[in-house]
Specification:
Low-confidence stretches: 92-129, 463-467
Radius of gyration: 37 Å
Strand content: 5-15%
Helix content: 55-70%
Distance between the termini: 81 Å
Shape: extended
Number of helices: 23
Largest sheet: 4 strands, mixed
Length: 532
């Protein structure tokens, strides 16, 4: 039996390691203007040697330096002339008046600014800020209007806290019950926690909007259909009473027919959602009617009713906020030439603090303080170099973009030329990943509007004359041909490819189909059936 013995082995290997400075350079390059401003503000708070340059206001160091020079000059002048100390100026009786007590004793309190008035409790400014109502807020508001057992209310709040952005329950009931049973103030067993969570889910599902708190699409739609049926039953009974009092039989019969048709469409919709939801995706009403054993008209009415339901009920309250965009660069034409300039408005300009620099050379400074200041200086200089490198890389990249896309800037999207990130990287002498980070989430102000820099990069297709057409323009041409087609006889992918080839663009049928699917355009058969 062989025994295991320890051994030492030497192995030579090469690997790429990113230093902290290089990692910061990569992260700074990927930031847009707003993100860079936030990062600089955070660094200025953490690093005391960084100062913002304000051209309109003199820095404290500059003021102190000027005062120090002035005092030194005055002392030298006194020493040179041997002048005596200047006599103190005579006291002015006007300055000895206590104006503070005068105003406090003899003026109306409404015109005083006493400390007790300034320090009084005032409502926070945050109370005046508008904040959109979220789904959790809306559900919690409804929950608060009900009289519930404390444990059940806490279980419902726990369920609400686990809903995703669409209003669905993101975890299983068992996982919820396990987490809920671990609350120290409840001390519940697993079975009791499971019962409370199930009751809490049922309670949330009866809140507005209908469909929240469900586990899947089928359950979400079924709850919405059931809610509509309950509401319809109330309207139906009220309409029956009104029809019974109507002396005109024809009008009563017409109203009854409309109500019966509406009720039947709900029944068919409930049947489709409950059993044949997978067939609904095919959009074949005839096949759906055959499997569900209903008429084509009833199946069509049921599908139209399903279209009125909301598969994502939580989106009504969890809408995405509008993202603020500020261009990082500006493309302008000056004297017949296109010029690229950085949009650095509101971005702080940094400099190193003179006061901390004097601490490094001062003899009385503690050694640990000097080491800390040196480390802060190294970090600040690295940040300033990375910011300058970011600016240089973005400007060089945009210079190539402007030079290659002059026709687009002057004529519009039809003149856009294909351009690859690899080509730009080779021209400015950097890695393609550097160019990719330089254009990520950044926008340019152009005569054609505010455009994302990645918009300028697109693959192309060569025509017979060698003219390149970018991918974006190709997709627009395919969409335009489909929009102009005869709805009774939609174009096939082969016909679209032939029409593009007649325009000098060589595309295969498979490529045309891929572009059409990327734009979520239905196939020829689906477009014909939809129009029918």
């Amino acid at each position: 039996m062989a025994l295991l013995q320890p051994k030492l082995n030497l192995k030579v290997a090469q690997r790429q390691v990113l230093t902290p400075g290089l990692m910061q350079m990569v992260s700074v390059l990927a930031l847009n203007k707003l993100e860079l401003k936030e990062m600089i503000d955070a660094e200025m708070v953490e690093n005391p040697v960084l100062e913002e340059i304000d051209e309109t206001v003199p820095m404290l160091d500059e003021v102190a330096a000027r005062l120090e020079r002035k005092e030194r000059d005055e002392r030298l002048e006194v020493m040179d002339h041997g002048a005596a100390e200047p006599a103190p100026a005579p006291k002015d009786s006007f300055n000895e008046i206590d104006f503070g007590s005068y105003f406090q004793d003899y003026l109306d309190p409404g015109f005083r600014t006493q400390p007790e008035y300034e320090d009084s409790d005032k409502p926070s400014f945050e109370n005046f800020l508008s904040q959109p109502t979220t789904l959790s807020d809306h559900l919690a508001w409804q929950l608060g209007s009900l009289t519930l057992d404390p444990q059940l209310e806490q279980a419902a709040e726990f369920v609400i806290g686990n809903l995703d952005g669409d209003g669905y329950l993101a975890v299983s009931v068992e996982e919820l019950a396990l987490a809920f049973s671990r609350f120290p103030e409840l001390e519940l067993e697993q079975e009791a926690a499971l019962d409370l969570v199930r009751r809490g889910i049922d309670l949330v599902q009866h809140l507005d909007p209908a469909g929240v708190g469900t586990r899947d699409l089928r359950e979400c739609l079924m709850i919405q259909v059931a809610a509509q049926q309950r509401e319809f039953a109330q309207v139906y009974s009220r309409q029956e009473i009104e029809n019974a009092e109507d002396p005109h039989g024809a009008m009563r019969a017409e109203a009854d027919a409309r109500l019966d048709e509406r009720r039947r469409s709900m029944e068919v919709a409930a049947l489709i959602v409950d059993r044949y939801l997978h067939l609904l995706m095919k959009r074949d009403v005839k096949d759906l009617a055959r499997v569900a054993q209903v008429t084509v008209e009833e199946a069509h009415a049921g599908v139209e009713f399903i279209r009125t339901l909301d598969p994502r009920p939580g989106r009504l309250y969890n809408r995405e906020q509008t993202r603020l965009i500020e261009p990082d660069v500006v493309f302008t034409k000056r004297g017949g030439e296109w010029v690229v300039s950085m949009n650095e408005e509101d971005v702080p300009s940094l400099r190193l603090s003179q006061r901390y620099r004097r601490m490094l050379v001062a003899e009385g400074t503690d050694k640990e303080v000097k080491e800390y200041v040196k480390e802060r200086f190294r970090s600040a200089m690295q940040l300033m170099r990375n910011i300058a490198q970011r600016k240089s890389t973005i400007l060089r990249t945009c210079d190539v973009i402007v030079r290659r896309q002059q026709d687009f800037l002057e004529q519009g999207i039809e003149a856009l030329r294909p351009m690859m990130i690899k080509e730009v990287a080779e021209e400015i002498g950097v890695h393609p990943s550097t160019v990719s980070r330089a254009v990520a989430n950044k926008y340019a102000h152009t005569p054609q509007g505010v455009i994302e820099l990645r918009f300028f990069f697109s693959e192309g297709s060569n025509g017979p004359e060698g003219a390149d057409t970018p991918l974006l323009v190709l997709k627009r041409k395919v969409r335009k041909l489909i929009e102009d087609e005869d709805s009774r006889h939609p174009l096939t992918d082969d016909q679209l490819a032939a029409m593009l080839q007649a325009q000098g663009i060589q595309l295969t049928r498979r490529t045309v189909a891929k572009y059409r699917e990327d734009m979520n355009i239905p196939s020829t058969h689906q477009r014909r059936r939809r129009d029918a």
